[in-house]
Amino acid sequence: QVQLVESGGGLVEPGGSLRLSCAASGSIVGSTAMGWYRQAPGKQRELVATITSGGVTNYVAPVKGRFIIFRDNAKNTVYLQMNSLKPEDTAVYYCNAVPSIHSWGQGTQVTVSS
Fold first, then answer.
1. What is the phi/psi pair of residue 94, to 5°?
2. Alpha carbons 15 and 83: distance in angstroms, whole number
3. Residues 38-92: pLDDT tens digits?
4. Could you please report the per-residue DSSP string of the chain?
5. Residue 50 to residue 38: CA distance in whole angstroms
6. 38 forms bridges with which residues in the sheet?
């Protein structure tokens, strides 16, 4: 069973940056499509960034141009570089495969506020 452990969240002011990390227990990062999801208070979890096994990335419109997803296959880790953060980016961020076939990790809280 694959375990996913997210880290790197925190409190940041609008316009700031954070880098999230997701460590996977199995060698799945380089062999399957991986994604970062987020769930804001009172809202459903949504997929915001995807990287395929071939390295092709895709983003939802609200984060395009500000977020970058990338991975280190040797470390079985997926990252999300978040720049120009906005209050509406506040959410718990999770990683998983795309589609999300693995059990969810605990997530990492990102709060964007002045």
1. -130, 155
2. 7
3. 999 999 999 999 999 999 999 999 999 999 999 999 999 999 999 999 999 999 9
4. ---EEEE--EEE-TT--EEEEEEESSTTTTTS-EEEEEE-TTS--EEEEEE-TT--EEE-GGGTTTEEEEEEGGGTEEEEEE-S--GGG-EEEEEEESS--SPP---EEEEE--
5. 12
6. 46, 93
